[in-house]
Amino acid sequence: MGGKSKADGLTILQLKSQIKAEQQHIAAETVKPPRKIACGAGLQLWVMGEAMYWRLPYRFGGKQKVLALGVCNPAKPELSEAREKALEAKRQLAAGLDPNQARQDDKHAKAYAHANTFEAVALEWHAKELASGTWKPKPALVVMQRLIANLFPMLGKRPIESLTTRDLMGPLRKLEAEGTLNVANRVRQYTASIMRHAIQTGRIDKNPALDLQGAISSPKASHHPALPLNQLPELLQRIRGYTGLQVVRCAAEFALLTGARSSEFRFSRWSEFDLAAGIWTIPEKREAVENVKYSERGEKMARERVIYLSTQAVTLLKFIQSINGKELFVFKGQKRNTPLGEGTINLMLNKLGYSTQLDICLHGFRTMMVSSLNESLQFSADAIELHIGHESKNEVRGIYNRNAQYLAERQRMLQWWADYLHVLETGAYIPPADFMIQTLQEQPKLRVVA
Predict the structure, then answer these.
(1) Catalytic residue among 249, 300, 422, 429
(2) What would the mean pLDDT of 183-209 be, rounded to a whole number?
């Protein structure tokens, strides 16, 4: 490591004096930078003017090299720290290592370690799924928020290869203790997918998240409340007798006639309806309206869907058009260019004497419609599911059936449903299977639009 030199005894005060002198020479242009000040242990301070840098010249493999040891603060030179760095570099030389190469190796090791933390792998997995189109932006944001809130605090900085099933249980147990079982089970699924990505990218050989299956209690299924079908007559009579705003009553009737989701009909525009053809085309996305939250929402599954309109639905829409025809939204709210509020129909149901937690809510209209159509035994399950806007639960069947639209059947189905409701409104309940499709023969037919 060499013997001692005069520079080894250099003090901070002496160094500052030399720095000042060199800066003056550089400013007077009597010398050219860099001006090198020997600082002991082979260390040099290169004075460029105002800027100064610690450097260690050395030889390795028969070549002259320089190791950068950082920037020097002229007001308070870190002499002792710089000397220690120089001595460490000399120890590496004595061990047969090139200090510059050792630094690069250390950087690579740290980068590798960071890239293999749970957080880094999770972010990589999230970016891959988002890029593949698996998620749309909003669900992707929800996943990221759950990763940040529930997984990263406990697992984020841990090396992915060090994690065991017990480690992965930690965040899940915390969520389970908080009673958020739905989130806990979602987070378990994310964890398994992240660890699977770690296997696929060669970071680990086995997936410790597989044994998390069944470790967390499953949440009890929660369904939107819907009335027994034999209470449909009373519901219809109460809606018809509602004395509040006409548009609210009309919206409830329209929701029941069509089985449309809240955002699908609340944000609907007149341009979507062809009343002459008897169809409503729900776009996959609507034009956003300034200051109207979620106004860009269209069909929930983000695909254009045709709803056939019964003669009763067309009549209802023409009535709404007579009072709202010049408005932006078909079912306008009390303020200009705003739709009915999300909870408006549920509030109406409360006023009609129903509990929207126990008896019936807006979404329950869809349940009652689907139940009635299924119990009628007159329509195929595929036609019902297509109308209501559900994706096929049978993936293989969905692939082979993707071009089947059941247009004529869906048209007959919607008219059957409207006629059925019209008869029930008189007060007598008829089981769906007893209300036969022959009752439609005298009804005017709607044009089938492909």
Answers:
(1) 300
(2) 91
